[in-house]
Structure to design on (215 residues):
C-alpha cells in the first residue's frame, strides 16, 4: 500500500453505482477526491482536482466517456484513465486504448479487482481485464483489421454535436450551447450525418442506441 493515498475521480451517471464505488475505494485506502455524473462535469472536476486516476464509464450524458478520455489525455497527461464499463465489445476496448485509457475492465468484475486495477494504473503498469487483454492481443496479431466504426472518425466538435443531436436538441439549441453560429452548427450536423451514413436524426439516434452511446 503506498504511503500517500491514490487520488481518484469517479465518473458514472448512475448514482447508486457511483456511491458504491466511492465506498469500495475508500474502504481500500483510496482517496476519492471528486465524483461526476456526466462527461462535461468529469472534465471540469478533473481540471479542478487534478486526480491521479479517473475511473470512468463510457456511456455518459453530455459527453461520451471516449471523448472524456481523449480530452483528459490531451489536457492532463499525468492523469491516468481506467475505464469501468458494461461494454465488452472489441471496438470499445480498442477505441478507449487509442484515446488514451491505460486500463479497461467490465462492471461484472470482482470488487477486489477494481482496487488492484486503480493501483496498477496509478503505478503506470496499466490494467486490462480478460476481455480487454484478449482484444488487444488479437489487434496485435491482426493490426490490419478495420473495426469500421464511423463514430471514431468524427472530430471532437462533431462528437459533441452528435451527442447533442441524440439528446434531442435543435440546431439553434446546439448553436447556443456550443456558442457557435447556427450556420456552423448546421454544417457540423450535416457532416455528422454524412460520416455516420444516417439520413436524419431518427437514424442517428438509432445508431447511438445500437452502439450504446446513450443511456
Amino acid at each position: 500500500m503506498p504511503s500517500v493515498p491514490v487520488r481518484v475521480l469517479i465518473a458514472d451517471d448512475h448514482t447508486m453505482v457511483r456511491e458504491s464505488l466511492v465506498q469500495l475505494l475508500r474502504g481500500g485506502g483510496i482517496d476519492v477526491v471528486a465524483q461526476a455524473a456526466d462527461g462535461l462535469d468529469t472534465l471540469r472536476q478533473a481540471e479542478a482536482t487534478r486526480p491521479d486516476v479517473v475511473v470512468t464509464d463510457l456511456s455518459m450524458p453530455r459527453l461520451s466517456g471516449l471523448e472524456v478520455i481523449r480530452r483528459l489525455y490531451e489536457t492532463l497527461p499525468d492523469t491516468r484513465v481506467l475505464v469501468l464499463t458494461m461494454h465488452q465489445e472489441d471496438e470499445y476496448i480498442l477505441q478507449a486504448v487509442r484515446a488514451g485509457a491505460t486500463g479497461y475492465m467490465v462492471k461484472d468484475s470482482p470488487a477486489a479487482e477494481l482496487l488492484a486495477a486503480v493501483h496498477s494504473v496509478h503505478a503506470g503498469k496499466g490494467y486490462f481485464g480478460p476481455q480487454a487483454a484478449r482484444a488487444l492481443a488479437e489487434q496485435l496479431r491482426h493490426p490490419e483489421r478495420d473495426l469500421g466504426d464511423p463514430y471514431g472518425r468524427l472530430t471532437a466538435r462533431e462528437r459533441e454535436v452528435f451527442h447533442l443531436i441524440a439528446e434531442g436538441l435543435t440546431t439553434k439549441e446546439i448553436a447556443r450551447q456550443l456558442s457557435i453560429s447556427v450556420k456552423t452548427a448546421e454544417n457540423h450536423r450535416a457532416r455528422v450525418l454524412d460520416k455516420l451514413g444516417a439520413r436524419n436524426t431518427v437514424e442517428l439516434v438509432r445508431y447511438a442506441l445500437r452502439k450504446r452511446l446513450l443511456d
